[in-house]
Amino acid sequence: MNDKIFLQGLEFYAYHGALAAENEIGQIFTVDIEMKVDLKEAGQSDRVEDTVHYGEVYEDVKAIMEGEPVNLLEHLAERIAMRINSHYNRVMETKVRITKKNPPIPGYYKGVGIEIVREK
Fold it and tell me: What are the tens digits of pLDDT across the range 93-114?
């Protein structure tokens, strides 16, 4: 089964990071979510109850990203994946990718970040 629901390019201004400057100044984080879900029933029924409401997933991600600051992106990603996998029965696997666009490190890059995949 290769069906997926995704939320791509969610942006949040938050204060996460291991460096003091990140906690004081904050920065933009980009979050991508991909959920493995069997979409056949929803495709046949045309009922939102037969799928995962991505508006609700967005609100869950927003609450975590804009919530209390943490040191590691890994921790944020785990919290997001755990929330999705435990709250949405139809989700079989969740991929979370978090990117810091402008971390306070020297160099030229489009971003730095992490990606995790968690099965239910």
Answer: 999 999 999 888 888 888 999 9
What pTM value is reported for the model?
Answer: 0.95
63 vs 13: CA distance, rounded Å = 12
CATH of residue 97's domain is 3.30.1130.10
Query: What pLDDT score was predicted for residue 106?
Result: 87
- Residue type for 51, please? T
Number of domains in the chain: 1
**Residues annotated catalytic, as ranges:** 100
Q: How many CA atoms lie within 13 A of 98 on its CB side?
A: 25
Which residue's structure tokens are 């730095």?
112
- Structural domain containing residue 53: 4-119
- How long a stretch of residues is the chain? 120
